[in-house]
Each structure stands twice: as C-alpha cells, then as structure tokens.
Specification:
The chain is about 60% helix and about 10% strand. The chain is mainly alpha-helical and about 260 residues long. The chain is elongated.
Length: about 260
C-alpha cells in the first residue's frame, strides 16, 4: 500500500516543479502542508455575467467574431467600383503678373471609375463565404459563452456539495475519535480486548483520511472556480470591481457553507 502512495507523491512533486518552470531534478523552495492552506473568506453565491468575459476562451471567440465581421466588410468593398477623383487649379494670362487676376483662374475636376469587368461570380461567392463565416463565428461565440456559464455553474454546485461532504467528514472524525477514546478507557479497565482497540484505531485513521480527502477536494474545486472565472472574481475591470455584487450575487461566508 505504501509504495503506490510514495510513487503518487513523487509524481505530484514533479508536476509542481513543472508548473513553476523547473526540471524534475530542480526542487521547489516553497514548502507547504495541507493544514496551511486556507480558502478565501467569502465565495460569491452566484457570479455576475460580466466576469465570464475575462475568460481567455470567451475573449478569443469574441475576437474571432470581430475578425469575421471585418472580413464581410472587405468582401462587400471588393465588389464596389473604385472611384478616383483628381482636381487641379491654376490661371491663364498673357503675362505672368496677370495670371491670377479676376477672370484668369480656373479649376478642373476629373473622375475615373474602375471596376472588375468579369470575375465569373468570384467576388459574389467570396462575399457569401464571408457571410457564412460570420454566422459560424457567431455560433461559435455563443457556444463558447454557454460552455463558460456551464463550467462556472458546475464548479459552484461542486463547492456546495464539497461543503456538505466536508461537514459530514468532520462529524465522522469526531465520532470516531470519541469511540477511540472510550475504547482506550475500556481497554485500560479490562472490558475489551486488544482487537477491539485495533478496530477503533483503524476506524479513526480511516475517518482522518476521509477528512483530508474532503478538504483536498474542496480546495481543488475552489481552484477550479478561479480557473472557470478566468482568474477569479476579484480579477476584473473597474466597472464590476468596485462595490459588492448586487442582487443574487451576495457573497457567502465559507464557514457557513455546509
């Protein structure tokens, strides 16, 4: 049982080294214990819609939509005729000092219209292709936004379930500890044998493992919420960062979430 856990520990350490940009043989100076990790004081009960826009995938889909829209404008412009206007001004006179005298100045405006004489419908089909590409980009943007909302909602639901699981694990650990204490007292008084004590100790250790797993799951889902929001609800523009969220976005204290 111990060798697989040791292998998993070393693989996790290798992953941490890779995340900070180190090679597997380059250790990370920072050390931490699970007990030293703490969740934020407050988590939002729900998320303002503007926060999803800071996700990289949503921002990329938005830029693709803008680019597709610009391509439609280019395709339409290519089908329009090109009009060139040139003008000139001057004066006429028999002698130089009378060139700009009244009656002498003149100006001319010359226009030139050019366009594609025959393209076999190429420009028309390019415009239609640009239109369809815009529809595709719009659908992709909508799909990306919906997936982003789903991702955020899933992580929020997971956090609520994690709170319930953690509360149950805490109660189970306390009950197992009381049982162990009573069994130890009974063992000293000669009321139970050593096998009963071993069973109580094993149950307590299992409850501790379950508690640690519940804590780790909750920390992992909290990190997933930060990722789903594109960096966290505090990492936002000034138009949504000032006052506390309004309406149903009131923060909830983590200590009150079961």
């Amino acid at each position: 049982m111990l060798p697989p856990l040791q292998a998993e520990l070393e693989q996790t350490r290798d992953m941490i080294r890779a995340l900070v940009g180190n090679l597997p043989n380059e250790d990370v100076d920072q050390k931490f214990e699970l007990a030293s990790l703490h969740l934020p004081t407050d988590l939002p009960l729900s998320i303002p819609s503007k926060l999803v826009a800071q996700r990289p995938d949503v921002a990329a889909a938005e830029e693709q939509l803008r680019a597709a829209n610009a391509q439609v404008g280019v395709a339409v412009a290519n089908r329009l005729p090109i009009i060139n206007l040139t003008g000139s001004a001057g004066g006429t006179a028999t002698v130089f000092d009378q060139m700009f005298a009244p009656g002498g100045p003149f100006w001319t405006l010359v226009s030139n219209v050019s366009g594609t004489v025959f393209d076999g419908g190429t420009l028309l089909h390019r415009e239609r292709a640009a239109d369809q590409a815009l529809y595709e980009a719009a659908a992709q943007y909508r799909s990306t936004v919906i997936s982003a909302y789903q991702n955020v909602a899933d992580t929020l639901h997971a956090l609520i379930a994690d709170g319930d699981a953690l509360a149950a694990a805490v109660e189970a650990e306390r009950a197992a500890k009381k049982t162990l204490d009573l069994t130890q007292a009974q063992m000293k008084g000669g009321y139970v044998n050593y096998l009963v004590l071993l069973g109580a100790e094993q149950a307590y250790e299992q409850s501790l493992i379950a508690l640690v797993q519940a804590q780790a799951t909750r920390l992992g889902d909290t990190a997933a919420l930060f990722q789903a929001l594109g960096g966290g609800w505090w990492n936002r523009k000034s138009d949504v960062a000032g006052d506390p969220p309004r309406g149903d976005t009131k923060p909830v204290n983590l200590s009150q979430v079961r």
